[in-house]
Design goal:
single chain; seven-stranded antiparallel beta sheet; 9 strands; 40% strand
Amino acid sequence: MPIKRWTITNHGDSNPATRKYVFPQNPLSMTSPFPEKSVTAQSTPRGRALLWEGGTQPHPWEFSGPVLHKDHFDALAHWVYDIRRRLVIEDHYGRIIDVYFTNFDVIPKRRVGYYYSHDYTVSALVLAMRYGTAEVEDPTQLGYFS
């Protein structure tokens, strides 16, 4: 089964040629996209706990990996800095993550002949997260754990 590539989608763009970006390589690491629940607790006069759950607050999130070439570098910079709106990332598990990008940080690597050899980190705020339909292979079915 092929690897599911990450995608960024701009639902505000009606042009199919510029509406979606497919990563040439998935990021190598990321922080958890799961937001923390907003819970308030109080006690009743009889000592019972009352809990209220509020709306989810935007959650900081980062993902990082290597920049492979100039087009990859330019695309990440474009999506982070030129498009100032809520975007949707679909990751390799099929999770649909609504984000607002806040930063694109690059660190050059010293590789002779590879001018665009960098490591990048993209920072975002997770606004919402849903589950899509990814076809991810179960590693227990691949014979690794038998």
